[in-house]
Amino acid sequence: MSIFIDTSTRVLIQGITGKEGSYWTKHMQEMGTKIVAGVTPGKEGQTVEDIPVYHSVKRAAAAHSVDASMLFVPPRFTRDAVFEALDAGIKKIVTVADGIPVHDAVEIRRAALMEKAIVVGGNTSGVISPGKAMMGFFPYWIERVYNPGRIGIMTRSGSLTNEVTSMVVAAGFGVSTLIGVGGDPVPGVRFAEMLPFYQADPETDAVVIIGELGGTMEEEVAAAIADGSFTKPLVAFLGGRTAPEGKKMGHAGAIVSGGTGSVKDKIAALEKAGARVAERPRLVGSLLREVFPATV
Amino acid sequence: MKLFECQAKEVFAAAGIPVPDSRQARTAEEASAAAAEIGFPCVLKSQLLQGGRGKAGLIKVVQTEEEAAAAAAGLFSRPEGVRILLVEKAVEIEKELYLSITIDPVESRGMIIACAEGGVEIETLAKEKPQALIREKFDLSRGLEAFRARSVVYDMGLTGDTAKQTVKILSALYQVFSRYDAELAEINPLFITKDGNVVAGDAKLSIDDNASFRQKEYQLTREYFSSDAEYEAALDGIPYLQFHGDIGLMCAGAGLTTTVYDLINYEGGTVANYLEFGGPNYRRAVRAMELCLKNPSKVILVVTFGTIARADVMAEGIVEAIGKLHPDRPIVTCIRGTNEDRAVEILEAAGLKPIFDTEEAVREAVSIAKGGAA
Hints:
The complex is a heterodimer.
Chain A: E1 10-14, H1 19-31, E2 34-39, E3 47-48, E4 51-54, H2 57-63, E5 68-71, H3 75-87, E6 92-95, H4 102-115, E7 118-121, E8 126-129, E9 133-136, E10 148-155, H5 159-170, E11 175-180, H6 191-200, E12 206-212, H7 217-226, E13 234-239, H8 263-273, E14 276-278, H9 281-291
Helix pairs in contact in A: 3-4, 5-9, 7-8
Chain B: H1 5-14, E1 22-25, H2 28-38, E2 42-46, E3 59-62, H3 65-76, E4 85-89, E5 93-104, E6 109-115, H4 122-128, E7 133-138, H5 146-155, H6 160-179, E8 182-193, E9 198-200, E10 204-207, H7 228-235, E11 240-242, E12 247-251, H8 254-266, E13 271-275, H9 285-293, E14 299-306, H10 311-325, E15 331-337, H11 340-349, H12 358-369
Parallel strand pairs in B: 12-13, 12-14, 14-15
Antiparallel strand pairs in B: 1-4, 2-3, 2-4, 5-6, 5-8, 6-7, 8-9, 8-10, 11-13
């Protein structure tokens, strides 16, 4: 069992007939993801990689049992697509769209909270349990990054995730489940909300978070460690330590919440709670090695 | 995008929020004429996006036409690059309040922040006197309900006609927040005048760039930027920041670019510009390098680790850019990700020495910037 998805999770693809949707459907299948149906309005009756396509999520969910939905839907239509999945009772949703209006994102997250569902994204590569399944687009074929193992990873970033994860793997570790919560100011799900799953996961020994300036997600992680609800070792890497004040550096998520969220404050909160904070990507591997000297 | 005060006030006024009588001026002559029309005393306000304009001397109160002309000339010659002055009727102030609407990303609701003490940095107030701030959340799907607007205003300690006026203003501010996909709609200070009227002293409106497909009223112009390169990059949708150091960054991904920026600082180097050509821009290396070359940097550092932004495509782009633009400075490359082996071949065939480790590439760039061999 891995977190969020594993080989038995039955996945629906919204936007399956699009260029991105069909390309990554093939790769998700190739990696082991169980894809049961697709949705593109107006294209019922077609197939993509032998997967049947339906007009609506409701019609797809009536014909197949669906556990999770993966959205390859443009940002301006994402709110409606998420609502459609929630309306069909789907509780796990991943949206990779980059450019969701923030007011839409607020409504998406609120609806997910009301429905007790998890929406991962947008502006993310998604979720991957290397060697098992993925919902999103990861270069899982790059073994020096997406090597299976026992380290859970959560990230706000894309390219930086490849950079940091390659250092985790270079230090002799691998990845249990990687969740990209995304770089938007209002992500559907926040770091701290996924921690209980890593805490309960027998396949995860420690968690790495890849954060950056802005917002309060890293502080919320520190609070979960401080109050004893998360007890596994946690290593953080945060981009933007030397970012000058007032400049819009990093993701949009690093911008909006002005006034709070300096990396200095985040590091202080995490270290006070007992997490280790790496100054450079390379040191994430070294710090994990200090925690697990015997692991090979 | 953040609107200038004069634009935000137009929006606020159209929504029914009272603002002082004002004119815009682009020359000292226009400013003194506008002042004469409005009457004295009046206020000349530099239209810049930075905060703290009062403290920085970018706002002047004038009593006569001559004073207006002189003050305007002074403001237009400021190094900040003032292009527009808002010439505004001065109001007699009884009290200053604070009112804004923004987003709470944790609860995922709209959030009103209100305070009976305005006119100061709200961040300072939040630190020193947090109990003075009212934070009221509401669901965007329901909108700001009338009862909630009233409740906030009464909690601010307002009564009578002042309270009624402020409720109207808060409701109008919500209409603006919703209609314009605002990240922030703020009135600070909100004046209660000596004759009992409630008037917006300042206006801030920040429109979500992701909503630009349905917010077409305000377009980016050169006036919003402090350099040509920043303006051109913004028009092209390429994230770009101007600094004044030695190393031009041409990286992919916000998080990775920010991290490379940190690593350069750790190694004692300085950054000339921050530029991202990842995501939707990964095929636009030529344009990205063109922007980088507008800066007097000593070396350009390319660091990528892309998935969809394929390494081989980016490497080809870099080689093409070098062929077309003939850069007058060394290029250090560290291109990884999908098809990275092919990327190395492409770079080597073009005579570059690809580096595979971010820190090593950063050290190489810093060494070149400090006068080491390329």
